[in-house]
Amino acid sequence: MKIPGVEYKTLCRYCSLSNELLIAEESGYGIYAYDEPFNNGHIVIVPRRHVSLSELSVEELYKALRLVKRAEATLRSVYHPQGLNIGLVAYPHVAFHIVPRWGGDVSFIKVFFNAKPIPETPIQYAERLRRAWRS
Ligand SMILES: [Zn+2]
């Protein structure tokens, strides 16, 4: 829903991610530690422009997939997950979510209390991934 007098961009969670969570910036994309992580190390890759999937050019999509591939390699080297889930939010602002997975990572706390303990804050793991991304 669009509110009259308010620029839509200000309501977009991907346009308003904190710079403290920024891991890297490349090829017109921001690579962030996600502020509501499903798991430790959860990364989100978003174009700097507020665009949907259908508004991305093929070249921009290719750049995104290269960054997703690099995120996989970075997360594997830092966290050694047993698997990785990659999810896509297509609209209104396209976002690629890369989530490390481990066996048993959906605990009773999540099931009963809808909360999940994460060993590092997103700001802490952003710093760890920033160093790994550069190497
Ligand atoms: Zn946006």
TrEMBL record:
Keywords: Hydrolase. PROSITE patterns: HIT_2. Gene3D superfamilies: HIT-like. Residues 10-108 form the HIT domain. GO terms for molecular function: hydrolase activity. It comes from the Archaea. PANTHER family: AP-4-A PHOSPHORYLASE, HIT FAMILY HYDROLASE. This is Diadenosine tetraphosphate (Ap4A) hydrolase and other HIT family hydrolase-like protein. It comes from Caldivirga maquilingensis (strain ATCC 700844 / DSM 13496 / JCM 10307 / IC-167). The lineage of its organism: Archaea, Thermoproteota, Thermoprotei, Thermoproteales, Thermoproteaceae.
